[in-house]
Amino acid sequence: MTMRANLVIFPIIGSIIVLFLLIPIVICLGLGAPHVTEVFHDREAVKALYLSLHAGLTSSLLITLSGVPLAYSFSRRKTTVTKVVESLLEIPLALPHSVAGIMVLVAYNSRAPIGSLLARLGLVIEDSYWGIVFAMAFVSAPIFITTMRAGFDSVDVELENVARTLGASGLETFFTVSLPLALRHLVAGFVLSFARGISEVGAVMIVAYYPKVAAVLVIERFLGYGLSAAMSLSAALALISLVIFVALRLVTKRGG
Amino acid sequence: MKVKLELADVYKSFGDFTIRNVNLQVLEGEYFVVLGPSGAGKTLLLQVIAGIYRPDRGRIIIDSADVTNTPPEKRNVGYVPQNYALFPHLNVRENIEYGLKVRRLDSGEIEKRVREVADKLGIRHLLGRDVKTLSGGEAQRVALARALVIQPRLLLLDEPLAAVDPVLRWELRDFLKSIREKFNTTVIHVTHDFSEALALADRIAVMNKGEIVQVGPPHEIFYEPKSEFVAWFTRAGNVFKGYAEPKGPGVSVVSLGPFDIVVKGNYKGPVTVMFRPEYAVVAREKLESSARNEIEGVIKDYVDEGALVLLKVSCGGVTVKAYVTKVSFQELGLKPGEKVYLYVKASQVHVIR
After folding, report:
1. Which residue of A78, A166, A169 to mutate against B (max B Cβ within 10 Å)?
2. Contacts (Cβ under 8 Å, ≥6 apart) of A7
């Protein structure tokens, strides 16, 4: 009892952080919500939102397709090499986002060696849709890989061993045992990387200011026309993020 | 009898575990137990047989065919890991069906074989259940059903009784024994429990630090251990180092210091002798028996094990263990400090070189 009584100060300190985080969210949604519908009449905003969602989905799909096999390899082959590669892949999380954008641009612009090859395939990233996808993927892929690897780590290897002895090939085992058991992590990783992608500003602005994604448009409106001009679009973006957040909680809670 | 499985010079290192120089033959229809302490490499041995790991060296032969490089899905070997590893996203029926579905059998055949195996194992009422709701004993039966439904050439069981309630263990032991008859299969069962091995095995392989140190029928392992390790691990009880001198035809005397022991066979030099506590006859008075070794001592302590009482008798500084029944213990009025005579037949003293 006395221990608990002593620590009563903890929730008091903690509630300051809770308020600090919640107040802006509530106020923004409160002020912006009445104007959210205005977004539907705002052609530019609708276009920007659509672009954000579209590029975000493309980026997350590409990350998922390549990240699932990679995360599985990380989880099942814990060698020094994989561990080093794994920590290298977390670097984008630690970079300032503008710097991340510069890196993507330097490496993949159409005059750079790799970029020129991509350009021949029609993948020019400067001020293009693919530039947005690249910037989003660069900053959100580490989140997907980490989440997905944790998912595969949670699958008991003996389940796979048994499946093999029962006659399933390696690939069959992966699709009938490993992946279904890590499905919640896959969905969570997809949603998290998607949320991360559509909220990205810094990297996207540097690689592809145009076409404008919603998060970039919010900055442009704020800088050009002030706080109230950015409000409705901000509220709309906040709502989308909130929906994603709730969806994620539902996914991770079920059976968790 | 036909050889079902043969391991020849098998070596494998994986993580902290190693198996070394393993040479084994398991016969068709045999209940074969691999006995050893944890860390001996028993699980790794099973996984190498199942094909989950490829040996670093050596060959694995099943039904006269070399399967060393055959992947597990082509070996048709049933594997039941210690934690049973039931697929948590599938129900009981789907777990059992798994091996049949990957074999692309038609649904009628699948249904028939699942019903057959479920009836034999008495788990038909469990088929619709979520595997997370099963008790330990139920989960074990389901795991066995899943392994047996593919009609495996070998059934590999890793510590099948370790996760089960001690009270249920006796019952499940009999159940495991019945598996072989019901399914007409060859079983390789891994355990660290020597009483389990004694109760189930046709033959036992004792494993220590990655090596098979002795193979033989249970009585041989228990009464004629080839090494001090095997004697110790099977709780031989009385293991003493001494010096042997031949004495007459086929008989030798081993001096243990405070007393001598007569053994059968011709030995000379340092030896280790061993006899199990159940082979020592306890008396309050000297018996007229020339054919037996007589050891005089004083009861130091005893352990009541239920039906039997284990006496620890101090014989000139050497502690000798002897079992008496509860009834004899009471009738003889045995207690610490009492003088007793222990009698052991020369033929029941085993000499470890």
Report:
1. A166
2. none
How confident is the prediction along chain B (353 residues), in pLDDT tens digits per residue?
799 999 999 999 998 899 999 999 999 999 999 999 988 999 999 999 999 999 999 999 999 999 999 999 999 999 999 999 999 999 999 999 999 999 999 999 999 999 999 999 999 999 999 999 999 889 999 999 999 999 999 999 999 988 777 777 888 888 898 898 899 899 999 999 988 999 999 999 999 999 999 999 999 999 899 999 999 998 888 999 999 999 888 899 999 988 999 999 999 999 999 999 999 999 998 887 666 899 999 999 999 998 899 999 999 889 999 999 999 999 988 989 999 999 999 989 999 87
Mark yes or no for CB contact B103/A167 under 8 Å: yes
Contacts (Cβ under 8 Å, ≥6 apart) of B185: B29, B78, B148, B152, B153, B154, B155, B179
> How many interchain CB pairs under 8 A, A with B?
66
- Token pair of A86, please? 């794994």
C-alpha to C-alpha distance for B58 and A243, rounded to whole angstroms: 59
What is the layout of strands, in order, in the sheet containing B292-304?
B281-283, B339-345, B292-304, B308-315, B318-325
Chain B residues with a Cβ under 8 Å from any Cβ in chain A: 47, 50-52, 71-73, 75-81, 83, 85, 87-89, 98-99, 102-103, 146-147, 150
Query: In whole angstroms, what is the distance from residue B48 CA to residue B59 CA?
Result: 10
Residue B311, CB-side half-sphere exposure with 13 Å CA sphere: 32
Question: How do B154-158 and B77-80 pair as beta strands?
Answer: parallel
| Three-state secondary structure call for residue A44 | helix
User: Who among A164, A166, A170 is closest to B150 (CB)?
Assistant: A166
> Chain B partners of A169 at a C-beta cutoff of 8 Å?
71, 73
Q: Which two tokens stand for residue A194?
A: 């998607």
Helix (H, G, I), strand (E, B) or coil at B333: coil
- For residues A41 and A106, give the distance between their C-alpha atoms in angstroms, rounded to a whole number: 38
ipTM score:
0.87
Pick from B80, B81, B87: which is nearest to A177 by CB? B87
B88 to chain A: nearest residue by CA? A181
**Contact, B262 vs B253, CB < 8 A?**
yes
d(CA A124, CA A214): 21
Distance of CA A28 to the CA centre of its chain: 22
Which of A162, A168, A172 is closest, CB to CB, to B85? A162
Could you tell me if B280 and B269 are in contact, meaning their C-beta atoms sit under 8 angstroms apart? Answer: no
Hey, what are B130's tokens?
A: 């979520």
Please indicate whether, in this complex, the C-beta atoms of B81 and A161 are within 8 angstroms of each other. yes
